[in-house]
């Protein structure tokens, strides 16, 4: 692992206890670390490449939902229209399943072979498998290409480490925020690409004929556009510096000798590392951390299931109490709400957090989200402009509440552990969260298909039961925010 010094010169000990005299001219990590120490400027070019790479990796996730219903319908795998949601759920789930399986191995790969190869391979996987997904002619081809995309796109963990290593300590928060902001931008651009560019021969017959490749493969154009962006990002990766240290084994003894000369200072560093190692073993016993992680996973499950259900429900037929919107309409709704959430996070939430703190809005946001979703089934009784206005407002508010909850969960996780443990703690969180997100689309698709087959004949219409069950997940999460299951970290309870 690499480390960074926050001093301006060349101190006796830098990084993870490696002496300044032990710099390796052929080591890319050493060269980058010296470059970072030599200047206190923000590395705008490196940050730009990081932002573009994260954006290209996030776009395939967000662009899928506006047209997924129509894609499954056209693949003719569903025997009945009510079964479309069942099959669509597994397409959405395979990406997250692949990411769950590969998250830890990709982290190990990045620690051994470097951050840059991991980033390049991840972007190349978007170019290849996102393109193949758009060319899918069978359901199983869509499943396999989507799963391989999640399996081989291991950028999420390593890019966070890279963003903190490519700059000085005082700029690390900015670097990490780029990862989050790029995914927020993907919430705007992704649905717009998927909604407006899917089925181009039907929407833009003057530009695309039925005989063209975009007519024969109606869902290829949005995938192709994203793949072209990813290819450009992959070329830009040429200028990315490597930040991992590569020191030959035959020079380890020399480094050890130099470290030994540091005396008591180095001894303190060793003791600190041993202390961190012991405390890492106890992370799973840290109930404040694990309760925050469990809350994060539950609300992540809810948000992913909501996105799947909303996208299917919005385009389904009126006879199944859907909204009969087009993929373009759904893309517009998701893009508008994504842009609104971005504005909310940048302009409104900071003031909310300043006066109320980041934790107090948690429970009100969960309660308001539950009340809002309870009104969704009744929107099927609306038409025209009234429907479009209300569904945009509802989607925007729902995503604002979700953003408030997610930010609070992340703060709770990071305040429950010491600074030295946050990397491992977030690794545990991402792995568990990915598992829940892998389950969510499949479960949501099965539930949606069941609801369409039981529109009547039960104590409630199927669509109301659908959103009731979705709300039950939020209610469980809300209940778990109270004692004895959950208690605020000491630093938060005092604030």
From TrEMBL:
<dbReference type="InterPro" id="IPR011701">
    <property type="entry name" value="MFS"/>
</dbReference>
<feature type="transmembrane region" description="Helical">
    <location>
        <begin position="465"/>
        <end position="486"/>
    </location>
</feature>
<keyword id="KW-0812">Transmembrane</keyword>
<keyword id="KW-0472">Membrane</keyword>
<feature type="transmembrane region" description="Helical">
    <location>
        <begin position="118"/>
        <end position="137"/>
    </location>
</feature>
<dbReference type="InterPro" id="IPR020846">
    <property type="entry name" value="MFS_dom"/>
</dbReference>
<feature type="transmembrane region" description="Helical">
    <location>
        <begin position="289"/>
        <end position="313"/>
    </location>
</feature>
<feature type="transmembrane region" description="Helical">
    <location>
        <begin position="143"/>
        <end position="163"/>
    </location>
</feature>
<protein>
    <recommendedName>
        <fullName>Major facilitator superfamily (MFS) profile domain-containing protein</fullName>
    </recommendedName>
</protein>
<feature type="transmembrane region" description="Helical">
    <location>
        <begin position="424"/>
        <end position="450"/>
    </location>
</feature>
<dbReference type="GO" id="GO:0016020">
    <property type="term" value="C:membrane"/>
</dbReference>
<feature type="transmembrane region" description="Helical">
    <location>
        <begin position="365"/>
        <end position="383"/>
    </location>
</feature>
<keyword id="KW-0813">Transport</keyword>
<feature type="transmembrane region" description="Helical">
    <location>
        <begin position="175"/>
        <end position="199"/>
    </location>
</feature>
<feature type="transmembrane region" description="Helical">
    <location>
        <begin position="333"/>
        <end position="353"/>
    </location>
</feature>
<feature type="domain" description="Major facilitator superfamily (MFS) profile">
    <location>
        <begin position="46"/>
        <end position="489"/>
    </location>
</feature>
<keyword id="KW-1133">Transmembrane helix</keyword>
<feature type="transmembrane region" description="Helical">
    <location>
        <begin position="389"/>
        <end position="412"/>
    </location>
</feature>
<feature type="transmembrane region" description="Helical">
    <location>
        <begin position="47"/>
        <end position="72"/>
    </location>
</feature>
<dbReference type="InterPro" id="IPR036259">
    <property type="entry name" value="MFS_trans_sf"/>
</dbReference>
<feature type="transmembrane region" description="Helical">
    <location>
        <begin position="219"/>
        <end position="241"/>
    </location>
</feature>
<dbReference type="Pfam" id="PF07690">
    <property type="entry name" value="MFS_1"/>
</dbReference>
<feature type="transmembrane region" description="Helical">
    <location>
        <begin position="84"/>
        <end position="106"/>
    </location>
</feature>
């Amino acid at each position: 692992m690499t480390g960074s010094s926050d001093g301006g010169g060349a101190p006796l000990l830098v990084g993870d206890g490696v002496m300044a005299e032990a710099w390796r001219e052929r080591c890319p990590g050493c060269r980058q670390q010296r470059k970072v120490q030599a200047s206190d400027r923000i590395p705008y070019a490196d940050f730009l490449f990081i932002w573009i790479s994260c954006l290209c990796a996030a776009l395939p996730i967000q662009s899928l939902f506006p047209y997924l219903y129509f894609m499954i319908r056209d693949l003719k795998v569903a025997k009945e229209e009510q079964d479309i949601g069942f099959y669509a759920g597994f397409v959405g789930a395979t990406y997250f399943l692949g990411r769950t399986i590969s998250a830890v191995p990709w982290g190990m790969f990045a620690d051994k072979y470097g951050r840059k190869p991991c980033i390049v391979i991840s972007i190349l996987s978007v170019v290849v498998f996102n393109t193949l997904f758009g060319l899918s002619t069978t359901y199983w081809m869509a499943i396999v290409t989507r799963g391989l995309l999640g399996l081989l796109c291991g950028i999420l963990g390593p890019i966070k480490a890279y963003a903190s290593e490519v700059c000085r300590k005082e700029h690390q928060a900015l670097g990490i925020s780029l990862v989050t902001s790029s995914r927020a931008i993907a919430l705007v651009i992704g649905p717009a690409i998927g909604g407006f560019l899917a089925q181009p021969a039907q929407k833009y017959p003057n530009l695309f004929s039925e005989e063209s490749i975009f007519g024969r493969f109606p869902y290829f154009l949005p995938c192709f556009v994203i793949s072209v962006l990813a290819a450009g990002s992959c070329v830009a990766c040429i200028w990315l510096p490597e930040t991992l240290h590569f020191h030959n084994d035959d020079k380890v003894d020399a480094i050890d000798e130099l470290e030994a000369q540091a005396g008591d200072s180095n001894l303190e560093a060793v003791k600190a590392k041993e202390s961190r190692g012991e405390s890492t073993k106890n992370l799973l016993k840290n109930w404040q951390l694990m309760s925050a992680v469990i809350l994060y996973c539950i609300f992540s499950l809810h948000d992913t299931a909501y996105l799947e259900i909303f996208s299917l429900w919005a385009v389904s037929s009126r006879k199944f109490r859907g909204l009969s919107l087009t993929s373009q309409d759904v893309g517009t709704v998701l893009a508008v709400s994504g842009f609104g959430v971005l504005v909310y996070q940048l302009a409104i939430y900071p003031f909310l957090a300043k006066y109320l703190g980041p934790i107090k809005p948690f429970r009100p946001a969960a309660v308001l989200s539950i009340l809002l979703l309870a009104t969704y089934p009744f929107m099927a009784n609306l038409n025209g402009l009234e429907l479009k206005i209300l569904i945009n407002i509802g989607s925007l508010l729902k995503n604002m509440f979700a953003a408030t909850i997610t930010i609070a969960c992340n703060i709770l996780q990071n305040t429950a552990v010491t600074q030295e443990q946050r990397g491992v703690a977030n690794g545990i969180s991402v792995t568990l969260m990915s598992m829940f997100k892998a389950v969510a689309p499949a479960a949501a698709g099965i539930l949606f298909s069941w609801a369409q087959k039981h529109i009547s004949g039960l104590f409630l219409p199927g669509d109301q039961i659908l959103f009731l069950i979705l709300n039950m997940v939020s209610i469980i999460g809300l209940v778990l925010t109270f004692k004895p299951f959950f208690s605020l970290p000491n630093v938060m309870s005092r604030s």
